UniProtKB/TrEMBL annotation, chain A:
SUPFAM superfamilies per record: Eukaryotic type KH-domain (KH-domain type I), Nucleic acid-binding proteins, Ribosomal L27 protein-like
Native source organism of the sequence: Stephania japonica
Record PANTHER family: EXOSOME COMPLEX COMPONENT RRP4, PNAS-3 RELATED
Boundaries of every Exosome complex component N-terminal domain copy: 46-73
UniProt keyword annotations, A-Z: Exosome, RNA-binding
Family: Belongs to the RRP4 family.
Name of this protein: Ribosomal RNA-processing protein 4
Pfam families, alphabetized: ECR1_N (PF14382), KH_6 (PF15985), S1_RRP4 (PF21266)
UniProtKB/TrEMBL annotation, chain B:
GO biological process terms, semicolon-separated: nuclear mRNA surveillance; poly(A)-dependent snoRNA 3'-end processing; rRNA catabolic process; U4 snRNA 3'-end processing
CDD domains: RNase_PH_RRP41
UniProt GO cellular component terms: cytoplasmic exosome (RNase complex); nuclear exosome (RNase complex); nucleolus
This protein's name: Uncharacterized protein
Subcellular location field: Cytoplasm; Nucleus, Nucleolus
Residue stretches making up the Exoribonuclease phosphorolytic domain: 28-158, 161-222
InterPro entries: ExoRNase_PH_dom1, ExoRNase_PH_dom2, ExoRNase_PH_dom2_sf, PNPase/RNase_PH_dom_sf, Ribosomal_Su5_D2-typ_SF, RNase_PH
Major subcellular site: cytoplasm
Organism: Stephania japonica
Length: 313, 251
């Protein structure tokens, strides 16, 4: 799910338009750095420059190959594309979900033993060597290496903080909306909920789990998943998530859905602002996906950004 | 002996005042409009309209190759599927999937788009382009190519240049830009051109029926101008779309 289709009535439409217009007025400098495919990017030829992602050279001029925003870092010139696919980089945090039980099985037995194919919202599936991780099922991992020549990604999940994800829900948004930062794992203390903003656009919202040091049976190189899974199934689930907590998870998830469909940037702070707003306004969880809340979120964002600007100026 | 292809005599395609059947000048495009993001689940999508012709395009990818045997190790696999909605024409016809015409147009679109996509940057992946004609009023082929370009650009797929396309014909001794269905079915020559506007190269040139060299020159000049005009519009749409995304995203 990347976008919601919200039916707006006339007043709501106008309010949304004013809100977006205000956003436009707030950031006036964007205009000149926007490029479309095949637009020329002006560079200082005397100074020397490096061509980065999304650029190519044509008749001695630098030309964009994707639509996006021109960014300059020292001598490097590149185009930051606003695209719905993840661009792999090293040292990003990932939230991986095993693509399909069947795929894993086939991979395991026939084609390449001891590795899993992982769906990561990238142009290809990533490879997770079983020797380089601790737990099966929904896993979190970080990028170990990208092999540019064949495009496959290798993941590893050695650290203790990567573990099975349970009791929560996964959302997919466009990766460019998730801001890269050092902190991708958030613990929302007031709700007791973990929020993980993956840089590939996968977002996990789940019940808070304490970092576990005493994981049972850390090595599973030979045993295999199928074995382990059947054991898991046999043992009845002792703990369950309280209804209240599940509702809170849904509330946060809906806040993210609204933000995503409006195309707003996503950080922990912004998500929390929206969640708190929904609570103070006494909005039911299902009403958060309705037109009225949609417009309110847009207005709130305008308010937030203008106050930020006031603070700076 | 007059060896010209017989036209339907009963219709005058150009009035004495020099206007066409729908009131356009010979060198006038129909109204064009484009929207990006019509298909929520696609990586990139667009609706492109030229007058009453309306086409929707969706792009999925680059993603992993579905059929392992088709994987290319040093470049991306580009696939294209063209279809026509049953309700798109005046009389409702149920069209079988994969008939000659749609197979041919799928191939044409695929080859045209492949020429501009930088396939070598995305090895072992596949890019799927789906185009469907929602309303057909002549010039569907051009509209499909324009919609596909927009959708590819919206999906963030690296391209050397945009591809834009436009058609033109030659009726009553006058070159006419962007034929509609009535003019198209007159049986006169119909030239379809696809160009890379910045690189100034031709990637597609098709023509039905015969045309003298002189007439071809003038038609070609007209149709190139048409393509350039479409390119300007497409560029402005893409810039506006990118700007909106960046604005909404904020810092």
């Amino acid at each position: 799910m990347k976008e919601l289709q919200v039916p707006l009535n006339q007043t709501q439409k106008i309010r949304l338009q004013t809100a977006l217009q205000k956003l436009q007025d707030l950031s006036s400098k964007v205009d000149h750095s926007i490029v479309a495919v095949a637009d020329t990017i002006s560079v200082n030829h005397d100074d020397g420059f490096l061509k980065g992602h999304g650029t190519t050279e044509l008749d001695g001029e630098v030309v964009a190959t994707v639509c996006g925003v021109v960014e300059r870092v020292n001598k490097l010139v590149y185009v930051r594309a606003l695209k719905p696919r993840y661009q792999a980089e090293r040292d990003g945090y990932w939230l991986g979900v095993i693509a399909d039980g069947a795929v894993i099985y086939v991979t395991w037995t026939r084609i390449v033993p001891e590795r899993w194919k992982v769906e990561i919202n990238f142009s290809q599936d990533a490879v997770l060597m079983l020797s380089s991780m601790n737990m099966p099922d929904g896993i979190q991992a970080e990028v170990r290496d990208t092999f540019q020549h064949d495009g496959t990604l290798h993941l590893q999940a050695r650290s203790r903080k990567y573990g099975k994800l349970e009791k929560g829900q996964l959302l997919t948004v466009s990766p460019y909306l998730v801001k890269r930062s050092k902190q991708h794992f958030h613990h929302l203390e007031e709700f007791g909920i973990d929020l993980i903003l993956g840089s590939n656009g996968y977002i996990w919202i789940g019940e808070h789990v304490e970092a576990r040091d005493n994981q049972e049976n850390p090595s599973n190189q030979q045993n295999g998943t199928s074995n382990k899974r059947s054991v898991n199934l046999a043992v009845p689930e002792k703990t369950y998530t309280a209804l209240e907590k599940r509702q809170q998870i849904c509330r946060i998830a809906n806040a993210i859905r609204v933000l995503s469909s409006l195309g707003f940037n996503m950080t922990k702070e912004i998500i929390m602002v929206i969640v708190n707003m929904s609570i103070t306004l006494n909005v039911e969880i299902h009403e958060m996906l309705g037109a009225e809340f949609y417009v309110r979120v847009a207005e709130k964002e305008v308010e937030r950004r203008s106050s930020l600007k006031m603070g700076r100026g | 002996m007059d060896r010209r292809i017989p036209l339907r005599k009963e219709i005058e395609y150009l009035s004495p005042e020099g206007l066409r059947l729908d009131g356009r000048l010979p060198s006038e495009l129909r109204q064009i409009s484009a929207q990006i993001g019509a298909v929520p689940n696609a990586d990139g999508s667009a609706v492109f309209e030229m007058g009453n012709t309306k086409v929707i395009a969706a792009v999925y990818g680059p993603r992993k190759v579905q059929n392992w045997g088709q994987q290319i190790n040093d470049q991306a696999l580009v696939r294209c599927e063209y279809s026509v909605a049953n309700f798109s024409t005046g009389d409702r016809v149920r069209r079988p999937k994969g008939d000659r015409r749609s197979t041919e147009i799928s191939l044409v679109i695929r080859q045209t788009m492949e020429a501009c996509i930088m396939t070598h940057q995305m090895p072992r992946t596949q890019i799927d382009i789906y185009v469907q004609v929602l309303q057909a009023d002549g010039g569907t082929r051009s509209a499909c190519i324009n919609a596909a370009t927009l959708a590819l650009a919206a999906a963030g797929i690296p391209m050397k240049d945009l591809v834009t396309s436009c058609g033109a014909g030659y009726l009553n001794g006058t070159p006419l830009l962007d034929l509609n269905y009535v003019e198209d079915s007159a049986g006169g020559p119909d030239v379809i051109l696809g160009i890379l506007p910045t690189l100034n190269r031709v990637t597609l040139l098709q023509a039905d029926s015969k045309l003298t060299m002189d007439a071809f020159e003038s038609v070609m000049q007209l149709v190139t101008e048409g393509c350039m005009a479409v390119a300007d519009y497409i560029r402005s749409v893409l810039r506006e779309h990118t700007k909106q995304l960046e604005l909404r995203r904020g810092v």
